[in-house]
Records
---
Amino acid sequence: MCVGILAALAASFIASGAMAAKKPAGAWQVIRQPDPVTGRSTCTVAAIDAAGGSAFSRTGALYPVVENNPVHGLLVGVSSGGRFRLPAGDILWRVDDRPFRELRAADNPAPAGTTPVAPVPPGPNDAATKAMQEAMASTMRLTAGMTATSTMASGPRARDMLAELLAGHQLLYRSASAAPDFGLPSSEALRVGQYTAKGQRPIPIDDSFRVGVTSCGIAP
């Protein structure tokens, strides 16, 4: 009976447009996505939900991903799921007992095809011109971050995070805004990791992760 209920739930998610794939042997699975327009192909290792023999993602939920991106290279962070993606926002991220990291959506790599801020011709006050250019660039980053459905680190920081994952055993993360920094404590601070039959648990960094990043050409 329980298996039938889980299968029905999985079918419901799939019918509503959630991403579906073969159930992984471990916590992580490889998702390859070609783009029929650009011809580019992305390979992602993600820990998404699994039930009734299928894997899927849900609208409103956040999932950890490590991506081999054809434009930006290695990306590590969190993506929202489901057919209708919501902004991911800033993220708190921690592997084992290492110090936590804050991933800021405003620090995302610039989307492909983004037009940079046009330089302003030098004027009588070069310092004021430079300040204006920096303010314009900062505003564009903040605006893009507010609407981004993934919050990702790139470059050296992404490589550091990948090294932590490869050496680690479990991952915790949540939205940075899920709990207040001060005032009355919120139970939302405990909503980390993944839901299991035994409650909220850290996401295991098991062999499926290491096999996945090798399959995607992310790590040897």
---
Amino acid sequence: MFTQGMRTSARDDWETPSNFFADLNAEFHFTLDVCATAKNKKCRNFFSRMKNGLAQQWRGTCWMNPPYGRAIGNWMKKAYEESQRGVTVVCLVPARTDTAWWHDYAMKGEIRFLRGRLYFSGGRRAPFPSAVVIFRPKGAPNV
């Protein structure tokens, strides 16, 4: 559950808007969606909750819109660690600059803050600011 000011969301699965994803996909050419469902997957290859992306080895160029609850730190840690193994991971996350996971992991990547609030699929406006965090393979230049 998220709380920002007086706003709360009981959901932690915010489906990525298709047009937003398409723009990033044109830049990165994703091969794997690391946390998805069959209904909201953005790539042909994906890990569902049953496959548990946290327990899998990631390959290629990965898209990650993680669950926005307490486990988000685990997902950001995994994304960073996979980048150190040679994988590019692009993450859509709430811009929670005051959290431990943000300082421990997000700040190690390239950060692109989004202007305004993102409208997720289904027309739900995010009650929080968002950012795209890009983890590139160790030694790869940030573009």
---
Amino acid sequence: MSRKGDTPSRGDIVERVEKHTADMAEKAESLDSIATDAETVRDTLESLDPGGGTSEGVDEVTHCIESAEQVTVEIFDREDAELEEIQGEAEEHEGEIRERTEVSQSDMEKVSDAAGKVELQETSSELDRAREGIADDIEFLDDQSEQARAAREENERLQQDHRARVQSGRG
């Protein structure tokens, strides 16, 4: 078992899943605020009375509010791209966890095969303990993969909602 050196601990895996989850939640919250700002700016522009002031004043106010919307959308797009990057890293980590699960399942088969070939009860008992350890690892990895997937999918759903809010005013 020479792969010990590059094998992450359970704590490392949990830490990465939690970090991705927290980073995605933080970006989704930021996108929500930015989308709210974009909606507020749009609502403000739509609520202005075009019959007030002078044409120059109305043009200036309209231009400034449209600029505010443009800046807000640009910031949203930048934050959205950063969220995409985090989601990509999270998805990559999910893949790594699945690969580790597959390797553990393969190891389980090898240990089971060996257990079927040994004669000594003591040896068989130790191999049974090894299978239990592998089964625990597989269960842990499956749980972490599911948590990571669920967090990423929920975040992607929120991201789509926020995008729809911002894009509803783009024309």
